[in-house]
User: Fold these one by one.
Assistant:
Number 1:
Amino acid sequence: MERLNFLAVDLGNSWYKALASDQGMVCEYQIPNAIAQYDGEFYEKPYDDEDVVFEENLIVEVKSPAIVDKREIFYIGKAAAKQRDVSLTTINNQKVDEDRTYILLFALAAYHAVLLNPEETVLSYTIDQLAVSLPTTQYKEKKDSFKQRLIGTHSVIFHKVPGTAEPKELVVKLHVKDVIVGAEGACAYLGLTRDQATLGIKDESLISESRKGIIIGDLGGDSVDFVGIKNNKPVASVEGEQFGINQFLDNIIQKISKNELYKFDSRSELEEKLSAGQSEWFVEPFAGVRKDISKYIIPQLKSMAMKYLEHFDRVRSSSNEVKGAARYIAVGGAAKLAQREIQEAAVKWSERGRPIDLLFPEDMEKLNVLGLMVLAKMNQFKKENGINVAHVAAKVKG
């Protein structure tokens, strides 16, 4: 399998996170889940190409059977987040049915291909195994149609590419040979328990605890998804509770804009500041003027933390399959950002006599994409050896 190309993409409402393995070489990416219409008339031409970072200037045109209108051009990721007409995700967005899913996914894969082949202006890139995730209800209802729309050949044209000759375009033909779709949350469990290289079990204690039950709470941008694991298998799911970090980010942005006269370009800009730590929690609305914004951030994170635990408590009380679960696990970038506040809120729950002892695993913000990469490799192993994918990890040696 080392000679093959694998791509795993977590299709998050806030970020698309990708893990690519090309003949053993591993690359990681993340771009904001943002898209905006491109209009050449209003394109701000830079003074010099050296002033432009390609990742922050992704302007794409996607031609694919999966997309309805194949003539439109879009800003995506950080470039889109800076536009006035930026389109962000809505709660309960239907990923399989929306063109934005395919535009962002194929463009991210093509961007990776361009970085691997920096001297080429027209290139082909084959993905032997593509693994993507869906929320549990969408997974149950639409995984097969999603897979069929992803398999095949898709063309991505990058426009206004810095450092290239006129017409400043790069063309990438993507060839997706096989696809496997995973359920969010359940993929995180795979990422927790399976080794990336061998696919073997790396956490026997967690496997053991799954006999009594495990609840994983995946806190995202617009929703929180819960998956119950018992005897090493998903047994219950509560999808799409309309609660996530985005509403709290919006509150922070609005308060800072009103009180400090500073406007963030996007939620992703604020999230990156939060990820950098409290030492970076300031803005400069005017040159030489530095404003501490922690007083706007901390109350919102505390509010989110308390409501996150309320959701956890409701799920553990209502799900017969995982009553008496031995372990509760926090997953997702939003949970990582608010880890301190969630732990403080958990103390209050203990004082109420309803303790929620949460595990905050390493790489908790990347567990879904790590699990998807495991799933992709398992699927390829099954394909090559004709073995049931459920038994692959126990048998594969490397």
Note: The longest strand covers residues 233-241.
Number 2:
Amino acid sequence: MSEKLKANLPGEGGRINAKAVGLAAALIALALICLAPAQPGLSIAGQRMLGVMIFAVIVWATGAMSYPVSAGVILALTALLVGFSPNSTGGIVGTSAGMKMALAGFSSPAFCLVGAALFLAAAMTITGLDRRIALLVLSKIGTEPHRVVIGVILCGFILSFFVPSTTARVACLVPIVMGVIAAFKVPLTSKFAAALMITVAQVDSVWNVGIKTAAAQNMVAVNFIKSITGYDVSWLEWFTAAAPYAACMSVFLYFVVTRLMPIGDVKIEHGREAIRAQLKALGPMKKNEWKLLIVSCVLLFLWVTEKKLHPIDTTTSTVAAIALLMMPGFGVMEWKDTVHRINWGTVFLFGMGISLGSALLSTHAAQWLANEIVAGFGLQSAAPFTVLAVMAAFLIVVHLGFASATGLASAIIPIIIAVLSSLQSPGVNVIGMTMILQYVVSFGFILPVNAPQNMIAYSTGTFTVKEFAKTGLILTAGAYLLLLLMAKTYWSWLGLV
């Protein structure tokens, strides 16, 4: 092949650019679905929204464009394709109505909660309270290798209550653990370093399951459950159902990491002193740290007692807390210092994700697709447990192609709810089973690219993709089997299955 022809190929050095291929595949899929013959029982607007959904899935799975840019493209496609769809009177829906549908997610309480959660995470970083909590836990747990792993798991668990952002929690723990590795004079390429950093990433994924406010994708599921069924899952209801599962997975994580990566022969001298030195360097608790700690504890109390002692929903209590934390004279942060710490691209993607799911529902595309899935797999009369087992396995496989659990939840949760609603089997708890399947959306254990927190940990160079996948495959298998076990026992007793 001539050099001139090579130069004309997309990608550096004549290699085909994977992002260009992904974008081309997404556009072709969108065109094929939109131009396909009309399907019985599916409106033109619904058919076009299915095309937008497939476009989004391919773009997100291939990384054809950044998440914020993809959100903007999906917004434009929704407004235009739905806007020029025929309506029941022989005219068109109109781009104004199409844009209103595309922006629906940005008026959702879940969207507001995620934004507020990112501000709360920023407050933790600005004051240094998250770092103090993590160092305090590590200083108390001991410095034997196995105890340090336990300490990292406990840090991930505790921070999940106070830092409602997975990326922020990992971003807090990674430098602390790197400091521990350096202080213990252990090579970055050692099994001990790999075990600690893999634990940092995996424990945060585990507790994304256990705590409603720990991850944005949970807000997606809760939002769709409320919009479709009218039921608002409280913080305590989620915790009661999911925390035992996450606790069991935390124990399993400890044994997987310590068995696959033998760290018992690591010799650590003056480890406790090294951690205490880092803690001492922070100095005594500062005024802003005390303020944030008090507000966070009150906020946690309000989350736990929602619907029990008061009627204040999670979103309202969180927004009120952020308003207090930014109030002149009392607050712990100012807008100019905080605005640069917020990942606005994540916020934009989250709002667009909710809009995508809402559009699939309002055009009845999700319901049509659900009926096709149920009929295609013969699930009409299947037992709820069978449906749960099949759909959980399906989600695990699909997640391998996603780097965003929020994106996966946005595309799949409305369809899951529609599938469960269309089942003819008696005793199907749509709300409970949707919650359980949402837990699977948070797995992301197998590959570093399956979650942002994995990539942050992987960027430290302490472990290889093979090491992460080795532990991740075992964690995923264990998580799936535990899910089936709890579906037959604990969740069945709670009436969720």
Note: The chain has a mean pLDDT of 88.
